[in-house]
Design goal:
The chain is an alpha+beta fold. It contains six helices and nine strands, in the order ααβββββααβαβββα. 33% of the residues lie in helices and 33% in strands.
């Protein structure tokens, strides 16, 4: 079972070991969820299913999300973990390097308030909407122009993600064990739509984007 005092390698190994089981369950639910979503009259629409792995007792949420009636159904799964009174939603990735993404309650609340504007949605629904809409992440180095509180968090606050809906501020770390591939962690702290950021912030983000363009080999 995944618990809050595990190290990153233990958490990541647990999540990856159960991915094939989650894939199987997601595929088994696909037709049922798709039929249910297509019958909805209001959008975006969700179908969320709790799924427990008996051998580990880990509890997951398998989700299906439909933005509009004629768009593709987006699907995936997430894991919820509690650390004392704090609740975190975990998404993991094995593309490139092992990485764990942690969505904090504060981040989800800000995304709901500042972008979605739908107060009745639950934290799980907000997380599903965010993950489904913002699956393309552009990592970005940030400085005091983008995050004026960067000195408060030091080296851990030097990165962010530019996504479709806006900008994600995050804390970044890495755990390295001898003989094993490093596991990175991104803890999302808050969210801002670009329209609500200052002109200085937007200019700095644009400059960072242009650096990536300049580095492309043609």
């Amino acid at each position: 079972m995944i618990v809050s005092n595990m190290d990153l390698h233990e958490v990541y190994a647990n999540l990856m070991s159960e991915t094939s089981k989650l894939d199987w369950k997601r595929d088994a639910l696909m037709q049922k969820a798709t039929n249910e979503l297509r019958k909805r009259r209001t959008f975006p629409a969700f179908a969320l299913y709790d799924y427990k792995i008996p051998t580990s007792n880990n509890q997951y949420i398998i989700y299906f999300y439909l933005e509009h009636p004629f768009t593709q159904v987006m699907t995936g799964y997430l894991f919820v973990i509690y650390d004392n009174n704090k609740r975190y939603i975990i998404k993991w990735s094995d593309s490139g390097v092992p990485e764990i993404h942690i969505l904090t309650s504060h981040f989800l609340q800000r995304y709901k308030e500042r972008f979605l504007g739908i107060q009745e949605w639950t934290a799980n629904e907000v997380a599903v909407a965010y993950l489904s809409r913002n699956f393309r992440l552009q990592p970005m180095v940030i400085d005091e122009r983008i995050n004026k509180h960067i000195k408060k968090y030091g080296e851990y606050a030097g990165e962010g993600f530019l996504v479709q809906d806006g900008f994600c501020f995050k804390l970044t770390g890495e755990e390295t064990l001898e003989g094993e591939e490093p596991v990175r962690v991104s803890m999302y702290t808050t969210f801002m739509p670009l329209s609500e950021m200052s002109s200085t912030q937007r200019e700095a983000i644009f400059e960072e984007c242009m650096k990536d363009v300049d580095e492309l080999e043609i």
